[in-house]
Design goal:
single chain, alpha/beta, 8-stranded mixed beta sheet, 3-stranded antiparallel beta sheet, 15 helices, globular
C-alpha cells in the first residue's frame, strides 16, 4: 500500500514528478497502490482532471499501470526504478549470471581499431557525411542476402535494443500492445512499459514463440511482435524451418503487424536463420556485434522496409546523428579479416551447453539451451533455488528478470565454464532445485 508517502504538487507535472521520484528512490515500491483520482484530488485541493493527467503521464512513461476499478499501482518493473537487479556475488563464488561472452572467444580489437583510426586520419567523418559507411552497408547487405532476409536498405544503431526502441516508437504510441517472448530478454521486457506500451506475453519452447499464442496476442490487439531468431535469451531457443513457416502464416493473417526480429546471435551460432519478414509491409531485422565482438562495441546493423528505415534514420538525425564511423570501420575490418570463426565459437558454446544439459538430465533436472551461451532451468521455487545454488558457490540469474507469466526458472551462462566445472555445477543445481519438475513438456509456461 501507499502508506504515508505524501504525494504533492498542484499541477499534473508536479504530481507525476512527485510519484516518479518516490518510485526511483524506493519510497514507493513495485506493486504499491496509488490513491483513487478523486481522493488524491481532494487531498491536494486540485481538480480530478489534473490528477487524471498526472496518472496518464505516469502510465505513458511506464511507471504505473491502471486496471479500471481496481485502481492504479506502481508497475512490477517501473521504468523509474533502478534497473540493476544483478546478484551480489560473494568472493570465491563462480558468476554464471552475467550473460557475457567468453573473453577467450572475442577477437583482438586493437588491429581493427588501429585500422579504423588510420582511415579516419586520412579521411575524417564530418558533418553532412553518410550515416552508414558504404563498405559496412555492402557487407551487411550481402550477409542478409545469404540468409534470405528480404531486400531493404541497411542502417546502423547503437546495439539491438537501440534499434528495437527506435522501430517501436516509429510506428507505435503509448498504450499500444506489443507481443513479446515469455520468458524473454529482460531489457526488452523493461523497455516496452518504459515506452508506455503494454507487453503481451507469448510463451516459447525450444523452437521459439508458440504460433497459436502469437496468433492470440495479435488477434487480441497487439500491434507489434518481437521475436528472437536464434540464441534466445534466456532459453536458447532458435526458430527452425517449420516454426518459421507457422509463424509466417500467423503474420500473413495479421498483415498490419509490425515485426521485429532480433538476430543478436549472429556470429556465435551455427544454426541457419529462418527469417519471418516478407508477409507484411512493416518489418525490421537487427544484428548486434555484442556477442561476437564484445558488449562494448556498441553497434548493430539492421534492415527493414524502406518506410521504417527512413523514419528511424530521420529521427536518429535529430538526436545522435549517426553511430561513430570509427566503430563502423572497425566492424568492417573485423568482418574483412574474418576475426571470428562463427563455427568454432558456436561449437565451443555448444559443447558447454550440451555437456551441462546432459549432466543435469542424468540427475533428473530438465534444462533448455538449443543455441547461444545460456541454459534455462525451470525450478519449483526460484528464490530458494537461486539462494541454494549461491550457497554452493555458483551464482545464477533469477528467472524473474526474464518472465511475465511463465513459470519460475534460473538462467546459467555457460561462458565461464570449463570441462571440470560441469559435474560439480550439475550436482549443485540438482540439489538446489529438488524436487525438480521432470516432465518432458518443452513449453516454459
Amino acid at each position: 500500500m501507499l502508506g504515508e508517502y505524501p504525494i504533492h504538487g498542484r499541477g499534473a507535472a508536479e504530481i507525476s514528478a512527485s510519484v516518479e521520484q518516490a518510485v526511483a528512490d524506493g519510497r514507493l515500491a513495485p506493486g504499491a497502490s496509488l490513491p483513487p483520482l478523486r481522493d488524491l484530488a481532494e487531498r491536494l485541493g486540485v481538480n480530478a482532471n489534473t490528477v487524471a493527467a498526472a496518472y496518464r503521464a505516469l502510465r505513458d512513461r511506464g511507471v504505473i499501470e491502471t486496471a479500471g476499478r481496481r485502481g492504479s499501482r506502481v508497475r512490477a518493473r517501473p521504468a523509474s526504478a533502478p534497473r540493476d537487479t544483478r546478484l551480489t556475488v560473494p568472493a570465491g563464488a563462480r558468476d554464471l549470471s552475467g550473460g557475457n561472452p567468453d573473453p577467450a572467444l572475442l577477437p583482438r580489437l586493437g588491429p581493427a581499431l588501429a585500422a579504423a583510426a588510420a582511415r579516419a586520419d586520412r579521411s575524417p567523418m564530418l558533418y553532412g557525411g553518410p550515416s552508414i559507411d558504404p563498405g559496412l552497408a555492402r557487407a551487411a547487405r550481402a550477409a542478409f542476402d545469404r540468409d534470405g532476409v528480404p531486400d531493404g536498405p541497411v542502417a546502423v544503431t547503437s546495439g539491438s535494443l537501440d534499434c528495437i526502441e527506435r522501430v517501436l516508437t516509429a510506428w507505435l504510441r503509448p498504450g499500444d500492445a506489443v507481443a513479446v517472448e515469455d520468458p524473454g530478454w529482460g531489457a526488452l521486457l523493461d523497455l516496452v512499459p518504459a515506452l508506455g506500451m503494454r507487453p503481451v506475453p507469448v510463451p516459447v519452447d525450444d523452437e521459439g514463440p508458440l504460433p497459436d499464442q502469437a496468433a492470440r496476442a495479435l488477434a487480441g490487439g497487439a500491434r507489434a511482435l518481437v521475436v528472437t531468431a536464434r540464441a534466445q535469451n534466456p532459453t536458447g531457443a532458435a526458430i527452425g524451418a517449420r516454426r518459421a513457416e507457422a509463424l509466417r502464416a500467423v503474420l500473413a493473417a495479421h498483415p498490419d503487424t509490425l515485426l521485429l526480429e532480433d538476430d543478436h546471435g549472429h556470429g556465435i551460432v551455427d544454426l541457419p536463420l529462418h527469417p519471418l519478414a516478407g508477409h507484411g509491409p512493416r518489418w525490421a531485422l537487427v544484428r548486434s556485434t555484442a556477442k561476437a565482438y564484445g558488449p562494448d562495441l556498441r553497434l548493430a546493423v539492421w534492415t527493414g522496409d524502406p518506410v521504417t528505415v527512413d523514419r528511424v534514420r530521420g529521427r536518429q538525425r535529430l538526436g545522435p546523428g549517426w553511430v561513430s564511423h570509427l566503430l563502423q570501420h572497425a566492424v568492417t575490418e573485423l568482418w574483412r579479416t574474418d576475426a571470428v570463426d562463427p563455427g568454432a565459437v558456436a561449437r565451443s558454446y555448444g559443447a558447454r551447453r550440451d555437456a551441462l544439459r546432459t549432466a543435469l538430465a542424468g540427475r533428473g533436472v530438465t534444462a533448455h539451451g538449443r543455441s547461444g551461451m545460456n541454459v534455462w532451468v525451470p525450478v519449483p521455487d526460484e528464490t530458494a533455488a537461486v539462494a541454494a545454488l549461491l550457497h554452493s558457490g555458483w551464482a545464477a540469474a533469477p528467472g524473474t528478470r526474464f518472465r511475465l507469466r511463465s513459470g519460475p526458472g534460473m538462467r546459467l551462462t555457460v561462458s565461464p565454464l570449463g570441462e571440470r566445472d560441469i559435474a560439480p555445477l550439475a550436482d549443485a543445481v540438482a540439489a538446489a532445485v529438488r524436487p525438480a519438475a521432470t516432465a518432458s513438456d518443452r513449453r516454459y509456461d
